[in-house]
Sequence to fold (143 residues):
Amino acid sequence: MRIDALLQRKGQSVATIAPAATVGDALGHLAERNIGALVVSSDGSRVEGIVSERDVVRRLHSHGPATLAEPVSEIMSSEVHTCTPEAEVESLVSLMTNRRIRHVPVVRDGSLVGIVSIGDVVKSRMDELEADRQALVDYIYAR
Fold:
């Protein structure tokens, strides 16, 4: 399955935040949307970084509550691994596993068009396995 098919099922909405927004603002967005990461972007299109719950927790541990007033740009991961809509889900699984990342922005021609989480990948794989199981059951009972 390709990433564009996965995005058609889940939707292409991406939560973004400006690099100058505070970490406290980021936490509010994460909680309100019940998500684990925000793409950092000044214009909502270009990927400048990504900030996750994990980034916030680590910074809070090392710098304390003052972290909440810092700009997101101070704690974001600026080396962002992306994929294209034409990429295969299997290649994304390898990337996520090897790089130990949970969120991958989807980019076409330099513009953000979606985001895929490890949960999206797992759900997609479970749907495929269920379809395979059902096909086998149908085959067995059709004999």
